[in-house]
Amino acid sequence: MAVSYQTRHWDNYQKHFGAQCPAQGHIDMWTTEGKEDLLYLRRHSSPMVCFSQPLGFSLVHQYIQHFNEVSGNKTAAIRRRSKTPGVMITQYVVNLPEGKTTPDFQSKPIPVEVKEGQLAVFKAVVTGDPKPEVTWRRTKGNILDKKKFLSKYDEETGEHILEIYKVSVEETDTYKCSAVNEFGKAVCTTTLNLTEAPTNPSDFRRLLRRSKAENKTADGETDERFWDAMLNADRRDYERICAEFGVSDLQSIMKKLAAKKKERRQKNSTDGGIPYDEDATETLGTKSAGRTKRFSINGPMQKDTGQNQVDEEVNRIFTELKLSKLDFVIRIQEINAEENDDALFECVLTHPLPRISWMGKGSKLEDGEKYSISVSDHQLIHSLLIKDCELLDKGIYSVVAGNATCSAWLVVEGKRDPASAGKKTVRRSTLAGGARIDLEKVAKEQQMKNQEEMEKILAAVKAKYEEGQLIEDILKTLTASGRDGEISEVTGPGKKGGAMEAKPKGKKGKVKFKITKEDGTVEEFDESGCLTDTEGYLIVDDPKNETYDRSGQEDFDKVTGENEEADSDGNKDSTGSARRQKQKKKAQRKQRTSDPNEPESENELESEYEGSDSDEYEDSTGQVKRSRRSKKGQQSQRAVNGEIEDPEDQNECEDAEDANGSVKHSRRKRQGPLIEDTVIDPGVQFICGLSDVSAIIHETAELTCKLSSEDCDGVWFRDGKKISPDDNFTVSKDGAIHKLVIISCKEEHSGKYRFEADGRKTEAMINVKDPPRFDPEDLSAFTEPVTVKVGHNGIFKMHFVGHEPIKIRWYKEGDELQVDNNTRIEKSASHSRLLLTRCQRKDTGEIKIKLKNEHGFIEAISQLIVLDKPTAPQGPAEVTENSAMCIEFRWRPPKDDGGSPVINYILERQQAGRNTWKKLGEIPGVPSYRDTDVDHGRKYCYRIRAINAEGTSDVMETDEMQAGTLAFPGPTAPPKVVSAYIDCINLSWDSPSNKGGSRILGYILEKRKKGSNLWTVVNALDELIKEKKYAVKDVVAGMEYEFRVTAINLSGAGEFSSPSEFVFARDPKKPPGKVISLKVTETSYTHIVLTWTKPEDKPGIQDEAKGYFVEIRPAEDIEWSRCNTTPLITTSFSVKGLKSMAMYWLRVIASNDGGESVPEELANYVLAMPSPVRPKFTNHKMKSFVVVRAGNSVRITVNFEASPRPKIIWLKDNVPVTKRVTISNSDGTSQLLIPSSERSDSGIYSILVKNLAGQETFSTEVRVTDDPKPPGPVELEEHVPGTVTVIWQPSPDEKRDDRLHYTVSKLDSTKRTWTIVADRLFNNKFTVCNIMLGREYNFRIYAKNDMGVSAPSESPTWGMERKKEKFVVNIPTREDCDLRCAPTFIVPLKLHNAPKGYECYMSCAVKGNPKPRITWYRNHISLNTNANYYISDTCGVCSMLILRVGPKDMGEYTISAENGLGRAECSTVLSVTE
Known about the structure:
Elements: H1 3-8, H2 10-17, E1 27-31, E2 40-43, H3 57-71, E3 78-81, E4 88-91, E5 101-107, E6 112-114, E7 120-129, E8 133-138, E9 149-154, E10 159-164, E11 173-181, E12 184-194, H4 201-214, H5 224-232, H6 238-244, H7 250-268, E13 281-288, E14 291-298, H8 307-322, E15 328-330, E16 335-338, E17 342-349, E18 357-360, E19 363-364, E20 371-375, E21 381-386, E22 395-401, E23 404-413, E24 429-431, H9 439-464, H10 469-484, E25 490-493, E26 499-504, E27 511-516, E28 522-526, E29 531-532, E30 547-548, H11 557-560, H12 577-593, H13 602-613, E31 616-618, E32 624-626, H14 631-635, H15 647-653, E33 656-657, E34 663-664, E35 686-688, E36 693-696, E37 701-707, E38 715-718, E39 721-722, E40 729-734, E41 737-742, E42 751-757, E43 760-769, H16 776-783, E44 786-789, E45 794-799, E46 807-812, E47 815-816, E48 823-827, E49 831-836, E50 845-853, E51 856-867, E52 874-882, E53 887-892, E54 904-911, E55 918-924, E56 928-931, E57 939-948, E58 951-952, E59 956-957, E60 961-962, E61 976-980, E62 985-988, E63 1000-1009, E64 1016-1017, ...
Parallel strand pairs: 6-12, 16-23, 17-24, 36-43, 44-51, 79-86, 95-102
Antiparallel strand pairs: 1-2, 3-4, 4-12, 5-7, 7-10, 8-11, 9-10, 11-12, 13-14, 14-30, 15-17, 17-21, 18-19, 18-22, 20-21, 22-23, 25-26, 26-27, 27-28, 28-29, 31-32, 33-34, 35-37, 37-41, 38-39, 38-42, 40-41, 42-43, 45-49, 46-47, 46-50, 48-49, 50-51, 52-53, 53-56, 54-55, 54-57, 57-58, 57-59, 57-60, ...
Helix pairs in contact: 8-9, 12-13
């Protein structure tokens, strides 16, 4: 596709997208990069990049899709960056199929730097569906040489590995790793380098000869201007000059430059000076705390020992120290940490190293808020602290130190206590193995080993070069004595009868001594390495010429006696002491020079020279640090024959030249006596200064520093103002550690903080930030998955706080969501809401909200689950058994179950040649079926549908299957010899892969002697071997046999297998006995620890055990599986990778050359769980009786505690609840829900919570009822004058509600109000007393229950008209009659014996005037106010009703009647039977 054709469609793109294209003006053109089927977007800034900013990934999809529609392309490729840095992904298709992904690197290969001749290994972990294919390539060549390159895959770790053997210069290259599947490709690169060029002079010469043979001499080397510039330039400008003249071989140039300078010095030497002799130069090398000091002594006093020989030997020692194998004494170990805890990785090195590289899941880790990287003072212990572990932090973490690497897993587990989710907890630091090893002790031991190694090497050099022993002894003596200031002169024999004498210099640790030789000449030189003569020039190596030794060996101060004032980091504490020393020296020099007769001493010149030449600067903490030469500059000083003398250092000590070439002496020979300098105490120093802190608003911030003295106090300042402890600041001191704590950070707390102590200071910045944050409870609620049905809406809402403005972005499956027809996003200053309308099944996935402001960002993740009917079952159907009696086949479940499991399958069958389908019904959700209703030789076709809670799937139709085909089984694999004895050989074999469509009935076994052609049947045809093993006992001792086997099915016998291996009939070595004292010592949700004792050794019965195998069997399986493939030597083992709360059987088998022992099995199964807890209910306010109106929902919630997770059973009237009842169980809670209740749901609901520790039950009575219907017709009868018996038909609800009762009301014609004459009647008639003649009465009957009262049923009017008689007034004479009387019981209480759970009704009759007050008692306790008893008193008839009698109701019941004339009592006893 031409570019012109592509640009022709760009206008159409702008018209189509308009303002939707945020990258307009950024896109140059569409390009295919030479491929017709690949399409990319190119920007101005860099070619072939994906539009991560400002163009979203989904919008790129829209561009490409539309471009394909316009241009007619079928495929397109999109390049995007992976979450793993340095990985580029190319996607071949626009829309990925559901469940498929492009390749990606979970862990990319890290760069490797090894020594020449060693092994280099690259490792990578890739993901993708389908599984990607991984290939390796290099830039400068191929990797086809199998002896050099090996590519393999480790199934246990999932790593793709490239191994490179015996690495040389030719293999140093850039290597590329590619992972490809049908949907895309992922590519990343890495490098392989050699650690260091060889320092052996012969190796340098070989490399130089090779480079000279391969490369032509650069033009710049022949230019005289180049050498003039190099000879007169500072050594820091060497690289710049080489680059200007086009010279690349810096090492070769340095060698030539040293030779030219040497030649120039010989040419310019005077006649009276000491001649320069290359063979008369002796180099004394010392190492001290990681840096190398060199000084050369040149002169006629030295014998012809050979400069090159000494240099080679010293350089060889240095090379051995530098290139000594750096390894780990203690490696990092696997850590199992809980969420929100801290994880601490620690390792110990064999040699000091100031910095190592930490890698996490393929990426380099830096010190910051998430990771804290630290190193000990002696640089042997290195630590990585991972703060606030999350589930995303799980993975492999590696540490790289030089050529050595080690890795370990970090496993992050979720909170075990769900109740603590979302609450703030105290963070803990988790170590490897749960306990800390004494790393400091190990490091001290390693330091001692390094010191011993250095002393051995130094002793060997001293023994070999005895000629230099005298100088070393003098240096040792002078250095040791010079420090104490005790020795002022040392004399001794020199070479060839010469004499030496030493005198102390004014400065501490500096000694100047002279050598008197046989010829009378005198030479003087000081400890710095400068040789002086009255008329000669001096040659010296500058003592400041320090090179860092990468091997990190111990000090050689014992040899040289150098008093090092700088610390291991090159920093010199000169805030107070160094500045005072400098002023002191200036004052002394001023006093000395004031005397005109006393010349300026060499000491003063040296001090002035050293002070002027030192490069010092003052850092932010107020400490003076001495700058070092760069590593590159140090490497440029190395010569071909070992490490050469630095030309600049030589120039610093040699005489200066004038324009005519004559030598001018820069120093004079000291004439007067030495004056010793005063040594000043350096004072208190900072061991560890302050570090900048980034704090979160309203949280705690801390500043810490450490002094060298515990007795020193200090002062804290903020922005120059002194800080005093108050409600916001806390100042503390713990020994030498000083700490400032800000309790609750605010914005005004940001600023510069300073700590001062003893004239020293250290500073740091605190930056208070306000990043976006979530409330833990809101975050916990948001992380719960949202489940909706197809076509419904999914809603996500999140509240947050943080500094405004806050950018809010929503993502679905990693793609940012934009507002469209189906997506609505609401944003405000404190919350955001996402609405997904008309959700489809494909919308199921991860929903993420990301908030970002100028102070940081935060994310929260939830899940959206959309429920739908399943897809059709997957074919083709596989026939597992095919005979004349049945057809058994199986199929694959639906690819998508719709979000809920498949419950059943619906099957239909059609006979070949017919058009009708026969329904076979529903089967459980197992994808297999056995059809026994078949005819021999007939062909059948089946249709299958899947059913879940949301509906029925589409149909899957199978191919035709024929019943009754004749097929014989195929051959089995050759039999295997299990064991052999003198009279028996045990064999085993596997089932044939081809069973012929029917089940195997048995096997026939045959044997044959070695050398014979006759096969003999071991078992008869009518005695088939049912199992896949057999013990052949018909053998002759000492003979050799082979065996073969054939399988028999319903069709007959199949082919014989290939013969087994030959085996002798003889006794083997005795296997060991069973292990002893097998027990479980530790259990958890994921592992079980076993220990045992080795079996006894009984000669002739059981031999000694060589190893052990641990086998495990889940309770639901019948097969044992081995936990270890190789025998164990120890008598303990940790079985890992277990399922929580699963049940396992465990056993141990001992083994040796004679076989395996009888398994020793645990007596009981083991649960993968911690210590058990008996279930108990935590909510003590649960109701035992609930009344619900019919049609309303019934909800019973029970809270409990139990460990392990209990089994929960709900019962209704001791019968399991029906399917219309919904049970919801979670950790610590169970809920019963009836959405719409009916009267039939009334009953006693019980919950049973049960685990291994015990069980607990709780019951609640639920009564579902409604307003009762009115009673039937009412009739009135008179049996006794003055009374009326009211009879009515029962209410229709009486049979369904055992608590329904009736109330009778009466209306007298003389009154206008209805009065209740009887209540709580459980029968259908009542006799009303006190009926007066001549009055009319009406009666109403009401039905009552727990829910309410029904409408009344009216009775006919009752009453008789009194005949009118003649009115006659008779005034009788009467006396007043007193009708008052004390209470008496007419009808007493009866004894009652009621069954448990039934009602009990007590009644009696009492009379008295005035009407007595009635009181009921149970065991002398009043019951009138107890709502559990229904008490009534109607016309002297006293009654009490107990609805449900229980054991608590047993006892003595008493009724008391009392008025003003007296009191009466009546008692009875209630007994309750079970």
